[in-house]
């Protein structure tokens, strides 16, 4: 009997991929409309732990079309397993699939049809993406081809270089390839390029191909953006970054050889710059080596022209940041563009541009402010008293466009409840993203309150506390509309609405106890978690009765745990899979943190986010530390620091880069909701300052 003839070979480099995540990849190949039996799948088990060597082949027992060769070497990129897998391929066409991604069901049928009709060596399709959690950096393709065209054919004698190589073109997985063409031209992945190896491979393939077929409308690949992936990690050592620079130089030389402008890949130098700025261990000598490698290419490049995929600010960033960082190894942080980025100019100028036509924006000429210094010079510091009259015009009379061009959706109550702080959609989304990040893909017990809105103002906004607004939005809107984030709470939404006070918390505790597989306990502050545990002790009979209504056996288990541990920590005994608690417990919450720890013991604790009605002020840098990180560079708020001095008339603020370690400051915030240079009542003690953030403890 002859060898089975397959329609297409799929090559997957597999390195310890979570098997639940890999299931999506498996299902996508099995469910292809051309029939799974017509697909040869080569899953290269690359440097895998022992359990994967057993479990992956087990998933395909009896499937003669699936090969699981093992490759162990020192390589840390998918290049070598892809090359290794290609040697096993027998089908006329080849596609690459990462183990945490998937194909759309019709992908292969459409691709094979295009190969037959267009006689191309490469067929390119589109790649959608899914974020593991909000806030991750996305590398996906934006084509310059006319999207109304179903098919675009590019021939070697009539290349459109700009459209072929613009943007992040080098994604190997959103393409399929003629296998004979690859083998005949010895087109393999360069295993000596440790970063952007996909780009090098695609460049070689495109340069060699006689005909390439683009399918602008056909979405064939589902890209899962994993927080643990190489591109999401920024803290790398000097030796790694030198190896990246050597690989980039090799790639640039390749582009020059093929007659492609290196300007189109200067984003790699920008990426290297950010790695340098974020590295905690790189030395000046190592930065000097990187300069020597990349300087010829940086100096030879010109500024890119704005296009569909990049605006003018992006073009300037691509051009100036590598010049300031890579070409100045002694002090890569000193350049004006780096300083501006570090201090949050992007966040500030988005706010000013959006609100330039407001009454406040016109009074202080937001349109003319081009620097952070100009903003600080022209716009005064604001306090509760200076803003109260303007907010009252909105809430009492119904005036709009005074402080913000966006409609006010809600006013958060602050202080004794008499102060109302505005919130818009652009402002509020940061809170939702932060909370969803904490809850994503974790089985969580979430302890929080929902209070009814107090009233509706005359500018048609709700008045409510921040916590209630956030919980309502999470339960009513965010979770139903974002099932892909897999937010799994032990309590259903109705519980938060049908109970209040201690009655609510007893039901939340009971629901948590009915979920023995909980992975984390979450709240806005440790006071709520401490109170929940205290109720479990003081109202034990009532709580166990609620548990017994649904699961008498579980109620008996809980009762046994409580009986055996009358005074000590009980969290791990109640929930064996519990990984951590997440709730703000620093500063004024220290005492409640101590009370909570009486129940949780040595269970890791994360302070989560420092929430304020004015802004998200910081994020805990890790479990079991009081350090918070604050950044204007990637956020939606602009921060300043007001030094604490004996001179009350001194209102000169500092940018984040100007902060000094081991000194206290009062936070000044400009946000998306119409608060400009607002002096908060939050005080921080700066501990570390680097490019990406300021790390602080609560003062």
What does this structure look like?
The protein is globular, with a radius of gyration of 28 Å. The chain has 699 residues and is an alpha/beta fold. Helix content is 39%, strand content 19%. The chain folds into 3 domains: 224 residues, Spore Coat Polysaccharide Biosynthesis Protein SpsA, Chain A (Alpha-Beta Complex); 105 residues, no CATH class; 182 residues, no CATH class. The strands form 4 sheets. Strands 1, 2, 3, 4, 5, 6, 7, 8, 9 and 10 form a 10-stranded mixed β-sheet that branches. A 7-stranded antiparallel β-sheet has the order 20-21-22-26-25-24-23. A 5-stranded parallel β-sheet has the order 16-13-17-18-19.
How are the elements arranged and paired?
Elements: E1 8-14, H1 19-30, E2 39-46, H2 50-58, E3 66-67, E4 70-71, H3 79-86, E5 93-96, E6 102-103, H4 107-118, E7 122-131, E8 152-155, H5 161-165, E9 175-178, H6 179-184, H7 197-208, E10 211-225, H8 238-258, H9 267-278, H10 284-300, H11 312-325, H12 336-342, H13 345-354, H14 359-363, H15 372-378, H16 384-397, E11 410-414, E12 419-423, H17 425-439, E13 443-447, E14 455-456, E15 462-464, H18 466-481, E16 488-489, H19 493-498, H20 501-513, E17 520-525, H21 526-538, H22 540-550, H23 552-564, H24 571-574, E18 580-584, H25 590-600, E19 605-606, E20 609-611, E21 616-620, E22 628-630, E23 638-643, E24 663-670, E25 678-689, E26 694-698
Parallel strand pairs: 1-2, 1-5, 2-3, 2-4, 7-10, 11-15, 13-16, 13-17, 17-18, 18-19
Antiparallel strand pairs: 5-9, 6-10, 7-9, 8-10, 11-12, 14-15, 20-21, 21-22, 22-26, 23-24, 24-25, 25-26
Helix pairs in contact: 7-8, 8-9, 8-10, 9-11, 17-18, 20-21, 20-22, 21-25, 22-23
